[in-house]
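TASK: fixed-backbone design
INPUT:
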């Protein structure tokens, strides 16, 4: 099929790396692997950072983009399907529903996110646009139970299907794990909000196990870097190595040396970095919060601790540093979990079934 792909929050071509960009790229790769031709149909970013942003200017840009795409399709033909990745209240799909209705094209979403508590102020209109797309879609792919439940409650008639978060594990599988004793690793962007909250929780837990000879490598950068560096100052300072931003190959090399992967995961949709670490054969210690349990198999590929409990988090890290047998078991389980359940080759077939059914007008 010829598939028009659109990510209203962040284009797959966006220069700044993030989990959102990575998932968009992986969806395109999975669809391509399944034999489809996938084209990014627009670079328009509908994201508005705050409730007082200029919605009228954004809507005008969207109307112009609809006109541009309509002209192209009128001249060269329409796609077989429109796939919209991650529409939510701050970045609704302002293009796909209108174009699909105009040209009678099947519409599909992946990772539509909806929460009723956002129905305030100007966000209420954006929320309705998200729901309009969800109701129109021949299939709404939900990567987490939280997203599925939120959309099901607001739009009971929406056609919902589950698909597990996934990655291409090959860059991590080609490296043999060579974990260094007591060496911990974290890979995360440095931004205010949930990212900063996780860094705060991580620093607090590590201060509780200073009696153990651990070291921590941190990969990432961003606007909150100075604030985060201060969290690890003092008695933590000589334990931490700041690697800065790295590409995927460099991250794979660093993960291969890690004994454990640490990231509490506050507010994570699911966290593709968890899957990357597990593909590298590194057990995860995270909190059972937000969408993290969708990406970490508790007891098989890592340990999940109660949300917000620094002592429990520190205890889980310490127990694995002291018990190499359990750590080794979880390391092997981590690789199995990704390769057998979350690899792109496996998910591509499942995704293809969803696409075919959507285009044929079948529902669950």
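OUTPUT:
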């Amino acid at each position: 099929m010829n598939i028009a792909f659109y990510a209203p929050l962040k284009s797959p071509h966006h220069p700044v790396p993030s989990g959102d960009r990575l998932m968009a790229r992986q969806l395109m790769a999975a669809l391509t692997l399944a034999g489809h031709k996938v084209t990014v149909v627009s670079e328009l970013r509908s994201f508005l950072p705050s409730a007082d942003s200029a919605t009228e200017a954004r809507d005008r840009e969207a109307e112009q983009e609809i006109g541009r795409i309509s002209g192209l399709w009128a001249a060269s033909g329409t796609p077989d399907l429109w796939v919209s990745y991650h529409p939510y209240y701050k970045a609704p799909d302002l293009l796909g529903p209108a174009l699909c209705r105009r040209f009678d094209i099947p519409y599909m979403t992946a990772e539509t996110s909806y929460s009723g508590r956002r129905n305030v102020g100007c966000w209420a209109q954006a929320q309705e646009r998200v729901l309009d797309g969800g109701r129109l879609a021949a299939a709404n792919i939900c990567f987490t139970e939280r997203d599925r439940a939120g959309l099901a409650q607001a739009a009971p008639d929406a056609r919902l299907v589950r698909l597990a978060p996934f990655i291409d594990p090959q860059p991590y599988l080609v490296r043999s794990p060579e974990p260094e004793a007591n060496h911990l690793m974290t890979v995360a962007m440095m931004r205010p909000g949930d990212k900063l909250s996780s860094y705060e929780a991580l620093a607090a837990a590590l201060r509780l196990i200073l009696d153990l000879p651990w070291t921590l490598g941190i990969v990432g950068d961003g606007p909150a870097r100075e604030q985060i560096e201060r969290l690890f100052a003092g008695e933590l300072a000589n334990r931490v190595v700041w690697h800065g931003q790295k590409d995927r190959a460099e991250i794979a090399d660093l993960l291969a040396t890690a004994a454990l992967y640490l990231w509490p995961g506050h507010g994570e949709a699911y966290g593709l970095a968890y899957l990357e670490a597990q593909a590298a054969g590194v057990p995860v210690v995270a909190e059972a919060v937000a969408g993290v349990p969708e990406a970490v198999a508790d007891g098989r590929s890592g340990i999940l601790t109660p949300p917000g409990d620094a002592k429990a988090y520190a205890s889980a890290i310490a127990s694995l540093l002291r018990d190499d047998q359990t750590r080794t078991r979880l390391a092997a389980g981590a690789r199995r979990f990704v390769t057998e359940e979350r690899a792109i080759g496996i998910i591509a077939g499942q995704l293809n079934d969803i696409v075919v059914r959507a285009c044929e007008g079948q529902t669950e």
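COMMENT: The longest helix spans residues 55-76.
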